Amino acid sequence: MSEQDTELETHLNEQEVFEPPQSFVDQANVSDPSIYEAFEENWPACWENAAGMLDWFEGYNQVLDESNPPFYEWFTGGKLNASYNCLDRHLDDRGDDVAIEWIGELGETRRYTYLDLHKEVNEFAAALRGLGVEEDDVVTLYMPMVPELPIAMLACARIGAPHSVVFAGFSADALATRMNSADSEYLVTCDGYYRRGEIIEHKEKTDEGVSGVDQNVTSIVVDRLGDEYDHSVQERDHDYDALIRNHTGAEVDPVARGSEDMLFLMYTSGTTGEPKGVQHSTGGYLSWAAWTSHAVLDIKPEDTYWCSADIGWITGHSYIVYGPLALGTTSVMYEGTPDYPEKDRLWEIVDTYDVNQLYTAPTAIRAFMKWGEQYPNEHDLSSLRLLGTVGEPINPRAWKWYYKHIGDESCPVVDTWWQTETGGMMVTTLPGVRDMKPGSAGPPLPGVDAQVVDESGEEVQSQGAGYLTVQQPWPGMLQTLYNNDERYIEEYWAEYSDDQDKWVYFPEDGAKIDNDDYLTVLGRVDDVVNVSGHRLGTMEIESAVVGVEGVAEAAVVGGHHEVKGEAVYTYVITEDGQTDNEALRERIITAVEDAIGPIARPEQVIFTPELPKTRSGKIMRRLLEDIANGDELGDTSTLRNPEVVNDIKVNASDD
Ligand code: 6R9
């Protein structure tokens, strides 16, 4: 820590509560504190405020239909189209304003006004139809951060074909699993892209994935790399540019979708090895993305707003594409990494484009901190009005660094807790209303009934710890897990809904509450690790590891990591009992990368003669976590084989 930072720490520690700057409050979209009470008194009608952010082709006749819980339905009877709401309705007033400001890693830029975006989305929608895509067909988008990704999403939305975006960093196997699970016959992909100046090949990986898909696949390939890269062409492949040329000037009427018609699927990790197909609606989801963008990110049409997430995750869906575009603002989209070509890349972009809101992740902030404040100091960041974070808990030190060195102590910081399943933000301060407390996400949003409960589901009173729950439905909630209503109930509603009159949503996070009702989210209580804000299922990783020849048994847990938050620790029992085998370690790492992708790469592979097990034969993961973290070990008395713990510790420290 620099001397300056130590000073800052001391100074900031004395006042753990930060008021929003008056200049921010004066112009905030939401600044009336009575909103909390008003929403509570008027629930669920308060959510007309969210639906009212959109244009509906046909008005809804009921805000919330609770007749078949937990399959709640929002704005029933209403009809709308997401692409119309993100594009067409802005054309008269701000057709020439920038919708997407795209910045490529090598420094190229592409600017799409609302008119430009509307034109290309229409052309691509016509092309998709021409290839046979019909309403309700799931189209898989396996693409990096190129403008054609949001274009394809909006084109799908225009014709009522749900999209399923698969993060480009995921492996071929992961693509195949997701396409099979969604019965998806259409795929939009890309030849490759750049990472730190290097070409990342994407098409061969796509082809390998498609070879594992059960359906016949029609695919469209975007040319990101130009002549530099000659991608292979299969019979099923169509060239994106040629399709657009063939449909120049085409117009496609936006399909009127029912409010509860599916807008998209997003696969995420859960307790079992099978990824979960989280299904989102059109009306409820889009209302939620728009309203939270308005109330929390304080987005106004004239702003330049930047969320540095990847569109392959839910944050990019809700807060690069749907929320900001529904509000008619300028959304910045950056292809590359924050340290290329230099560690000031983000600040250079904020400076050049006069970015007003920056929404990023704690893992990025911890990296910026490590690199030092000289990088932001080189740039004029005074355009910033609000800062946000999402993805994992933010430690107070990182929060304060962000507040001071990026926000110059004059921007509110919103620490937003939410999930793929919630569609948008749930717990965070309203920046124009509530004080901020570093490390605590804040109170639930108005109208959101989040509570901390104990094992038996009883509410934990102030200053207690327990499990986070949501006690009332909300418009952005998932509709179900694709084709699996049973698992939807099992995963999210079974834990705390003993009494069938009251359904309680359980996000599988632990939390504590303070005496102002501020929540501090402590992290997952299920078998999910959070690496750099990305959710990975330990069971998925384990199944890749045990598939490697020579591995007898394996257990995967998350251990603390200074920058990534958590990292993957893999404990392995080998078939021959050896505890030192470099070649096997390499094969294990490769297997995990092949099964999931480089983000799941184990930080450590620890060979051990045995794993700590309970008398009933369950692996004690909690102990393995303690070992990974170098913590005092918890209770080992229920172990069948307590002596094993020392062996593992020895092997772990050898690494
Ligand atoms: C949006 C997103 C969801 C999980 C969630 C929790 C963790 C997200 C957080 C946070 C503490 C925050 N999480 N935001 N924990 N404070 N502000 O990240 O969705 O990828 O589905 O992950 O991330 O554990 O349950 P998703």
Automatic annotation (TrEMBL):
<dbReference type="InterPro" id="IPR032387">
    <property type="entry name" value="ACAS_N"/>
</dbReference>
<dbReference type="GO" id="GO:0005524">
    <property type="term" value="F:ATP binding"/>
</dbReference>
<dbReference type="Pfam" id="PF16177">
    <property type="entry name" value="ACAS_N"/>
</dbReference>
<dbReference type="GO" id="GO:0043955">
    <property type="term" value="F:3-hydroxypropionyl-CoA synthetase activity"/>
</dbReference>
<dbReference type="GO" id="GO:0019427">
    <property type="term" value="P:acetyl-CoA biosynthetic process from acetate"/>
</dbReference>
<dbReference type="GO" id="GO:0043427">
    <property type="term" value="P:carbon fixation by 3-hydroxypropionate cycle"/>
</dbReference>
<keyword id="KW-0547">Nucleotide-binding</keyword>
<dbReference type="InterPro" id="IPR045851">
    <property type="entry name" value="AMP-bd_C_sf"/>
</dbReference>
<dbReference type="InterPro" id="IPR042099">
    <property type="entry name" value="ANL_N_sf"/>
</dbReference>
<dbReference type="GO" id="GO:0003987">
    <property type="term" value="F:acetate-CoA ligase activity"/>
</dbReference>
<dbReference type="InterPro" id="IPR020845">
    <property type="entry name" value="AMP-binding_CS"/>
</dbReference>
<protein>
    <recommendedName>
        <fullName>Acetate--CoA ligase</fullName>
        <ecNumber>6.2.1.1</ecNumber>
    </recommendedName>
</protein>
<dbReference type="Pfam" id="PF00501">
    <property type="entry name" value="AMP-binding"/>
</dbReference>
<feature type="domain" description="Acetyl-coenzyme A synthetase N-terminal">
    <location>
        <begin position="35"/>
        <end position="86"/>
    </location>
</feature>
<dbReference type="InterPro" id="IPR000873">
    <property type="entry name" value="AMP-dep_synth/lig_dom"/>
</dbReference>
<feature type="domain" description="AMP-binding enzyme C-terminal">
    <location>
        <begin position="540"/>
        <end position="618"/>
    </location>
</feature>
<dbReference type="InterPro" id="IPR011904">
    <property type="entry name" value="Ac_CoA_lig"/>
</dbReference>
<comment type="similarity">
    <text>Belongs to the ATP-dependent AMP-binding enzyme family.</text>
</comment>
<feature type="domain" description="AMP-dependent synthetase/ligase">
    <location>
        <begin position="88"/>
        <end position="474"/>
    </location>
</feature>
<keyword id="KW-0436">Ligase</keyword>
<dbReference type="Pfam" id="PF13193">
    <property type="entry name" value="AMP-binding_C"/>
</dbReference>
<feature type="region of interest" description="Disordered">
    <location>
        <begin position="1"/>
        <end position="24"/>
    </location>
</feature>
<dbReference type="InterPro" id="IPR025110">
    <property type="entry name" value="AMP-bd_C"/>
</dbReference>
<keyword id="KW-0067">ATP-binding</keyword>
